[in-house]
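Box 3.1 A note on notation
Throughout this textbook, protein chains are presented in two layers. The first layer is the amino acid sequence; the second is a token string describing backbone geometry. Keep the layers aligned when reading.
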Amino acid sequence: MSDHARTGYFRWLRFLLIPAVMAAVFMLLPGAELHASPADESASSAAQIERFDVKKGQVVAQLAVTEEIRQELRKLAQSASGSAGTFRIDPGDGTVLHFPLQPALEIRQPGFFALAAEAYLFLPAGREPYMLFFSEENEPRLFGVKHPVKPLLSLCGWEDAYAPSGQ
């Protein structure tokens, strides 16, 4: 990965992590009571999935989160394995999809439970996909996925984002 692409990738990742940290801090303030309002509901419906091209080092597409996409994400989360095998947070190629999860998505694994506030789906060229979830407390968890990613990519219209090895 070129230095320019790496810099753009980390800038993009930091841009997404700062709002998550701020949201976690505000939710943990003592005595704060947060209630969903119509404004909150419209903000969650405006949440955008971002497609990041690693080689270009930039977001190349955005798409609104739909209920069908949330259902497919739920299937991916339920299929998460305890291990992501070999992985890199800064892959040299492929695509990374960022999913804001509002409301939070429940992740249940043996000995692990969290409400995921956002997820990153890494689609490295020729290798198995893996997901990075951030809990509402901004704790990261990395998992391999067993459920096929093609249905999710089809719902997004991004079938070209991933080609498993041998294809």
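The two ends are 23 Å apart (CA to CA). Helices lie at 3-28, 38-45, 67-78, 150-156.
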